[in-house]
Amino acid sequence: MRSKTTEHKEGKATVKIVYFTSKTLADGSHPFVVRVTKNRKQVYRYTGLSLHPKHWNATKKEIRRTYPDKLREDLLDKLDGWRKKYEEAATTLAGNDEQHDAETVFKKAIEGRQAQRRVKLLAYIEELAVGMVAAGQVGNAGVYRDLANQLAKFIGAEYSAPEPPLGKGQEVEKAAWVKQHDIPFDRVSVTFCNEWEATLRATGVEEITLSLRFRTLRAVLNKAIDAELAKAENYPFARTVTERRKFQVGKFDVTTAKRAISRDELRKLEALQPATDRQGLAKDVFLFSFYCGGINFVDLAQLRWQDLTGTDEHGRPQRLSYVRQKTGGKFAFKLLAPAATIVAAYRPFTFAGLASYVFPVLDSRKHQAATQIKNRLHKVLGQVNKDLKELGKQAGIATPLTTYVARHSMATTLKQDGNSTAVISQLMGHKSEAVTAVYLDSFASDIIDSAFDSLL
């Protein structure tokens, strides 16, 4: 008896992991995709893994050897796991002599991943965070883990279960709690989102934080759908304005309150004599940011003496060049006298070679790993903003001072002096003038108010 088979020997589909440079993610990285080719037709699926181009050797088409070994090995293992899943499906289909195309390979792989389909929300978020850390995206990983922690609290309250332990040495207990009280993706419904929003609002969470958490949750579900772990028909978020019954992430008011101070107020801060070295650092951070195009704290804290060049007649540096951590954008400009004076004052205390940090925030001997640097910056930023608020009160400035106020103030001052939004946008490293416009909202309001005053 002949076995049931096709009239021809069915060929095997080829499976390859591709660094997909045609797609650029928000953090500047490119995603890795699985490419299945059958009968000259190619089909792609995202893996959820990505890598910044500075770590990719385009000539050899491989991860650069300079990428940390542990992170490199972890990423390669994950990518190999994706390849094997679809390679096995392709081998099975060819071995069974089943007529098929590239899409069939993906469907077959899904059948073999039924156990993986039971991956739940919190576990998946942690999986994404681990992948981000491996790719050097420590900041993004922190955002995703914060989301998971907040969702865990909400889920715990819903189940009337105690919150997971968060102390050191209790990781095992926390993992067990998450596994026990995790929820499947289809539980994240419109009702779930509405109830979580109400819970967050009851604790006083601000609009901008609500927007961030729901945008991150939406991104998690999008990734889960792309990875075929969640069903698109259960998606709770509105994709268009016509989907009024679904959860609208765009409803949150993320416009900023007035966060710029005037030149006169800046002079008051400059004249103030801080009582402690810590307050002195906070004052210097604010003023240096203002006079250096609104450089943000993360970039400021990681400036090294090699980024400063030239000297004037007083021995102060004349130019600053640096790469913005968030976007990879390159900046180079002259240092105004106030900024040059600030860094010159730190030279006797922090200069131990061109590679040493300018400001006394990071210690290259202590803070080496990306996580160590992130934690240190987070801690010191909190201290700086706390001290700035106190300094603002002492100087009689009504607006609560933060490092972001320095950035807003710089933008507003330039606009008042007649500089175009396009120039300010380029100086601040924004991707579009629309982003810069957010910083200038309060300025626009002042202009309108003045216009009405002219009617009197």
From TrEMBL:
Q: Which organism is it from?
A: Hymenobacter glacieicola
Q: Does the keyword DNA-binding apply?
A: yes
Q: Which domain of life is it from?
A: Bacteria
Q: Where is the Tyr recombinase domain?
A: 256-453
Give the similarity note. Belongs to the 'phage' integrase family.
- What keywords were assigned to this record? DNA recombination, DNA-binding
The reply on keyword Transmembrane helix is no
InterPro entries xref list? Arm-DNA-bind_5, DNA_brk_join_enz, Integrase-like_cat_sf, Integrase_catalytic, Integrase_recombinase_N, SAM-like_dom, Tyrosine_recombinase_XerCD
**Gene3D superfamilies for the chain:** 1.10.150.130, Intergrase catalytic core (1.10.443.10)
SUPFAM superfamilies from the UniProt entry: DNA breaking-rejoining enzymes
Q: What is this protein called?
A: Tyr recombinase domain-containing protein
Pfam families the UniProt entry points to: Arm-DNA-bind_5, Phage_int_SAM_5, Phage_integrase
